[in-house]
Amino acid sequence: MTLDYTELDKAAAELHCALLQNEPMSRHTTFRIGGEADRFLTVENQNQLTALLGVLRQKDLPWLLLGNGSNLLVSDEGFRGAVLALGGEFAKLQLLPDGKTVRAGAGVMLASLCAFARDRSLTGLEFAWGIPGSVGGAAYMNAGAYGGEMKDVVKAVTHLTPGGELVTLPREALELSYRHSRYTGGKDIILSVDYELELGDPAEIAGKMEELMGRRKEKQPYDMPSAGSVFKRPANGFAAAMIEECGLKGKQIGGAQVSPKHAGFIVNTGGATCKDVLELIGLIQKTVEERTGTRLECEVRMTGQA
């Protein structure tokens, strides 16, 4: 099927919205994998976003909202549609008047958010230091690490509905649970997140962040392209332990490898394709289920042509 981007290209030009054609998604995912997206647009404000979404829906064009691409596997054939990346006002941080609430645009990287809080002696986000995601993506999946989760610090989320309505929901209405929120699989678009933090000792905050980053680098393949933990934590144990017990640590298909450092990660050793990763995921799931009776569930989102 041939998609007609005439109206979208025209709208992007009128809105002064940066647009790239046939953009390799390998440049925009932490896996460094993915074919070309037909259109790649950087959206800088709500007016641009609302207008572009209107055209996309009117013309029935597929679209994908992109954060840091840190939990995403894109097909080798790419994405037939438009990818929207959030910049501009969606990449801003501000401290609200109460001195303890930080408002972050959905396009802000978690590293920037954590550093912003640290520099203002605000504690609560140390666990997120080193998670390679965006604010929007982290809220979308209730990201967490080292005993902390977004649900511990998120105060409210503002989103845009498919009908163009701006809505702010308090934490209690967000349905935050393990790697899940009310936004998971839905069509509302997260625009910003408010975090409720506490005043703390700046030296202690920085020390905790450094400690957790050290643990990450020691135990995880932090220096290699990956999408983070591939599988959700099963009810009866840990995915990494099960994979290792099945003798799959270091197993490689093409350029995709079960990390020799942490079996819960699949890394791109160089030139890995989406096909390589999917085959390796399938092998892991089949082997672990046969030997333990547990079916591992993927945490990584997949998109594009099969």
Map the helices and strands:
Elements: H1 6-14, E1 18-24, E2 36-43, H2 46-58, E3 63-66, E4 72-74, E5 79-86, E6 93-95, E7 101-105, H3 110-119, E8 122-123, H4 135-140, E9 144-145, E10 148-149, E11 154-160, E12 166-170, E13 189-196, E14 198-199, H5 202-219, E15 226-229, H6 239-245, E16 252-253, E17 256-258, E18 265-268, H7 274-292, E19 301-303
Parallel strand pairs: 2-5, 3-5, 4-19
Antiparallel strand pairs: 1-2, 6-7, 7-13, 8-14, 9-10, 11-12, 11-13, 15-18, 16-17, 17-18
What this model shows, in words?
The chain has 306 residues and is an alpha+beta fold. The chain contains 7 helices and 19 strands. Strands 6-7-13-11-12 form a 5-stranded antiparallel β-sheet. A 4-stranded mixed β-sheet has the order 1-2-5-3. Helix 1 (6-14) runs antiparallel to helix 2 (46-58). The mean pLDDT is 95.
Task: Give the DSSP E fraction (strand runs of 2 or more residues).
Answer: 25-35%
The parts where pLDDT drops under 50 for at least 5 residues are none
Structural class: alpha+beta
**Biggest sheet architecture:** 5 strands, antiparallel
Question: Element order, helices and strands?
Answer: HEEHEEEEEHEHEEEEEEHEHEEEHE
Question: Using only CA atoms, what is the Rg?
Answer: 20 Å
Total helix count? 7
The beta-strand count equals 19
Proportion of residues in helical segments: 25-40%
Instruction: Note the quaternary state here.
Output: single chain
Query: If you average the pLDDT, what whole number results?
Result: 95
General form: globular
- Placed side by side, the strands forming the largest sheet appear as 6-7-13-11-12
Quote the distance from N terminus to C terminus.
Answer: 15 Å
